[in-house]
Design a protein that fits this description.
- This is Phage protein.
- The chain is mainly beta.
- It has one domain: Beta Barrel (Thrombin, subunit H), CATH 2.40.10.
- It has 1 helix and 9 strands; from the N terminus they run ββββαβββββ.
- The strands form 2 sheets. Strands 1-4-5-9-7-6 form a 6-stranded antiparallel beta barrel. Strands 2-3 form a two-stranded antiparallel sheet.
- The longest helix is centred in the middle third of the chain and has 7 residues, at 45-51.
- The protein is elongated, with a radius of gyration of 16 Å.
Length: 106
């Protein structure tokens, strides 16, 4: 399995946002981006038949090496993707089932 592509993981901050009275606004709780090597491919017909409706919206499988961070979403070639199902952790890999985010067509 080749990790020849790059994916940007959008990570949620572990810190909860709070009100800073000196600044007069909410602070903390932001997001950070982390670029990691990945293996990206379509979901196989065998996997779709096994999981059925559970992955109905998923179109792509993204595999990265052992990601323990809380990932909110990810970017593939600058395009936003949402995570359809909880990440799976096996054999020092983290597998994300994702689908492309549509921002409406005009």
């Amino acid at each position: 399995m080749r990790f020849d592509k790059r994916v940007t993981l959008i990570l949620k901050s572990k810190e909860k946002p709070y009100y800073d009275p000196e600044l007069g606004k909410m602070v903390g709780g932001g997001t950070t981006k982390k670029v990691v090597p990945a293996n990206i491919g379509p979901i196989s017909a065998k996997l779709q038949s096994l999981l059925g409706d559970k992955l109905k919206e998923a179109t792509t499988v993204v595999r990265v090496r052992n990601c323990k961070d809380k990932v909110d979403s990810l970017l593939i070639d600058g395009q936003p993707f949402s995570i359809v199902d909880n990440p799976k952790h096996a054999n020092r890999l983290t597998v994300f089932y994702v689908s492309e985010v549509n921002h409406g067509s005009s």
